[in-house]
């Protein structure tokens, strides 16, 4: 009975046990066979068998050959000489530098002093913004370099010398940073996107000399050089091999044309001839005839050309750019239509059928909210007004980018209707009855328009009708904006303005500053700004209202011997943020990184690092949106919170009405402040209605980065709003106090409890 019970219990596990046993047995047998075969090879008498024909000697010894070195990982053991002092390893700024990545394409444009302000400018305006890096090379430079162009002058207009110096310069400064080098003349029009697409389909491990192949005059019939007028492409490996021979080419090769000289140099020393086709990719070119009309060119060679030459003047360059842009746009529209047709055909085969096709075809479906809190609201607008304003007002005038957006979307709607119904009907807009828009983060901006249209038939009859149309402005390709390099090692100078109303909160601020910056040895300093009322300033000798704060500062300086906390005293009735910052700015170097703080701010290292990273000199300033805690008396209504649970500190909201905190460089502030002074002249009363945010917004031209900052937390307090400030600043202060009381649900519960208490 016991044996039967045990077998019945083990019966489900028997297949597993049998499989494990069989697997172990086969593994042991295979290991013994492999060991025996290895012994036979080791004990076999006679010389080793010769390697196969063409195999390298390393392959016979079981080691990979030279061609496999790039594909076998090598572990380099770390060894440090104990006799040498330890040095900190300096890491590179970017990971692509450390890993040895290269940029893809560098473009060099050969120009001259005579054409620098004409053809070179046309090249710069048409294709320069499509290439990642483009430089202009000339022999002699003019007195004034056109704006937005990086020019390298070699000091000699001789064509061969210009080519020689250009190749040397490219190798010296960019030879180790780029994989491909495209060289063109300023009388060449190149399709930038086509050139970039070409290099993505070519292997970087080959020596490439690609362009329009031309025969040498009276030379070898097999050798070819690349015509400079149509541009040519050089690989990095070819440039590295060519550089040691440039001096010899300059002394030994005689030629009138620089492109022939370069081609002869590459052929003589590297044995590589120019080709027009490589790895299945064709370098298409088109030679313009005199008095050519680009708009009338319909040849396939013209439409497929990567480079067009010669371009005689600026106007022709712009006309070529317009025509090729139109050709490229037509190709894109046709490709979109083909893809949409394929999507429709494939969707019909899915379980959802044709009902699964979203509109527009190929664009993500609208966002489907899972609860009422995720519903994306629509904004109502007309041609003159917007009924969802940034400042919270119910109605505001439609202006700026919003007005341009509405005008463009109405024009596009009428154009699409005419394209759909022509030639039977012709529509013209009379009035926008209703307009709605919302931003869907999954697809883009959505619009719904109620248009009052006048429809005209072919016979001249017209009729007024209302029609509703829906449009989508989809999100385009995401681009990474290049930003200057910043580091977390920058020293932050905290500036803390203090008034008499802030005295109760100074002790907590100094304690947090000492714990999170001084104890951790963070690279941050503090400057206090004491704002005296004129009445208090007259009684400083008898009773200093900031005496307690100064005593606390003295205690901190005794506790931290290497720390000095200076203070500045200011007498004013209206503590204008701009006027106070003017005083602080004059007492610090121009490269100082300021963090303008408030007394309710809890300083921590996490935020200070973000302040350093988000503030870029001469590029960007950072205005964080702090997290404001709600009033615990309304949120918790007498429940025990502070002693046992700290999660209540996070029960609040991001105060978008406050601009008290800011990170910026002193040099940027001084530049913007100088422009402001020239604008307002001697009207200092204007400064009382402005904040530092307004100075940067209207007078700096820098990027203003405004983002929520979860690391910047402020405890609840009812702040005093100075009625002597401007109406806008006072209104923002009142709104900040009101919205910081509690959430709607907490306020509703408080009112409900109050009504219950009154009723009983």
Automatic annotation (TrEMBL):
Which PROSITE patterns does this chain map to? Answer: PROKAR_LIPOPROTEIN
Q: Which Pfam families match?
A: CHGN
Provide the topology term for how it sits in the membrane.
Answer: Single-pass type II membrane protein
Task: Give GO MF terms, alphabetically.
Answer: glucuronosyl-N-acetylgalactosaminyl-proteoglycan 4-beta-N-acetylgalactosaminyltransferase activity; N-acetylgalactosaminyl-proteoglycan 3-beta-glucuronosyltransferase activity
Q: Where in or outside the cell is it found?
A: Golgi apparatus, Golgi stack membrane
Enzyme Commission (EC) number: 2.4.1.-
Please provide, in alphabetical order, the Gene Ontology terms of the cellular component aspect for this entry.
Golgi cisterna membrane
Signal sequence residues: 1-31
Query: Which residue windows does the record flag with biased composition (Pro residues)?
Result: 45-54
Quick one: where's region Disordered?
42-74
Q: For this UniProt record, give its keywords in alphabetical order, as a comma-separated list.
A: Glycoprotein, Golgi apparatus, Membrane, Signal, Signal-anchor, Transferase, Transmembrane, Transmembrane helix
Similarity field: Belongs to the chondroitin N-acetylgalactosaminyltransferase family.
* PANTHER family given in the database record: CHONDROITIN SULFATE GLUCURONYLTRANSFERASE (PTHR12369:SF14), CHONDROITIN SYNTHASE (PTHR12369)
- This chain belongs to the protein called Hexosyltransferase
Gene source species: Serinus canaria
- Gene name of the encoded protein: CHPF2
